[in-house]
User: Which sequence fits this backbone?
């Protein structure tokens, strides 16, 4: 996939499982402790350990990789939780099972099963693994909404291979947005100070009622008390579509975009206007419609576009195949275009 023109977009942040996070747990009353214990007893039996083995791709190796014998398989470890007893469906992070050739799922009772990847979505970092077993315990997802900031948060998982480890904290914030090292934008995350460590990824973040409010997925390297979880609301939307279609079908306009600013206008030597400046992908919707990189979108779907939030709100309501009228500013002139919405291809950035 080629990108026309080069423009610097977005700064980098973090992703999941490389640095341990340690934080102190606040003093709590006996009643609060008992409530936490009950919640753990409800969710804990459905939390699983996921071990993976990935064989190196010999096509990507150089002769130096074979100097000391054949390259060894790469092993990984994470967590997950059972959401469907009948079908044996387990939810985990996509990055936990990414490129895995073997998946082994171990329940708290030490029973192990071969896991089969049903579907995964890199963008939301959600994957579904299936095991064949009977009478499986199930973790219940929170039904709608999001947890309140300051409410208890209980993380259960297998950090560093220590199975069914429990840590407690609070929901520090909601609707956080992070950029993974591979460029993926992770949106609407829950932030918690419950300790999350390597191996916790894919495990549940629960409330004191035993509801799964999120799935632990990321930490900030060198930070303390800065863990992030995919909210239950996102899981509830993504999982059924993954099961039905094997993928998430997303509308795509064929370009990346950021807010226009006076500083960026000065750098490019153009007049400043409110809108979003774009960087197109060659061969896709925007390119086919005649848009260029550095065009500034000021109107879409008959509505003014002053920033990224305006444009995203418009695109989020569209489906693949829809027509989107766009007005862009190029060299000081307003030009009209009509986009035919594509499906977001693998590897592309929204």
Assistant:
């Amino acid at each position: 996939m080629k990108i026309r023109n080069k423009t610097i977009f977005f700064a980098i942040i973090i992703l999941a499982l490389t640095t341990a996070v340690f934080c102190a747990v606040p003093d709590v009353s006996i009643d609060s402790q008992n409530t936490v214990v009950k919640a753990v007893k409800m969710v804990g039996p459905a939390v699983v350990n996921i071990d993976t083995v990935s064989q190196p791709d010999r096509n990507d190796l150089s002769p130096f990789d074979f100097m000391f014998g054949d390259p060894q398989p790469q092993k990984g470890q994470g967590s997950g939780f059972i959401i469907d007893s009948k079908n044996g469906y387990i939810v985990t992070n996509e990055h936990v099972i990414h490129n895995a050739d073997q998946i082994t799922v171990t329940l708290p009772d030490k029973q192990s099963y071969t896991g089969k990847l049903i579907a995964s979505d890199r963008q939301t970092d959600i994957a579904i693994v299936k095991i064949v077993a009977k009478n499986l315990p199930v973790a219940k997802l929170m039904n709608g909404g999001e947890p309140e900031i300051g409410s208890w948060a209980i993380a259960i998982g297998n950090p560093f291979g220590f199975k069914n480890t429990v840590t407690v904290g609070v929901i520090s914030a909601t609707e956080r947005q992070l950029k993974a090292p591979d460029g993926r934008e992770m949106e609407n995350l829950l932030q918690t100070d419950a300790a999350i460590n390597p191996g916790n990824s894919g495990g549940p973040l629960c409330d004191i009622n035993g509801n799964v409010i999120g799935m632990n997925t990321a930490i900030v390297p060198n930070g303390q008390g800065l863990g992030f979880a995919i909210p239950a609301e996102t899981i509830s939307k993504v999982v059924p579509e993954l099961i039905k279609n094997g993928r998430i079908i997303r509308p795509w306009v064929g370009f990346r975009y950021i807010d226009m600013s006076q500083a960026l206008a000065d750098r490019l030597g153009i007049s400043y206007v409110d809108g979003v400046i774009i960087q197109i992908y060659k061969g896709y919707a925007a390119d086919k419609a005649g848009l260029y990189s550095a065009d500034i979108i000021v109107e879409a779907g008959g509505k003014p576009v002053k920033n990224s939030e305006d444009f995203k709100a418009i695109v989020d309501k569209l489906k693949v195949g829809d027509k989107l009228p766009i007005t862009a500013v190029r060299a000081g002139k307003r030009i009209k275009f009509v986009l035919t919405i594509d499906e977001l291809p693998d590897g592309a950035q929204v």
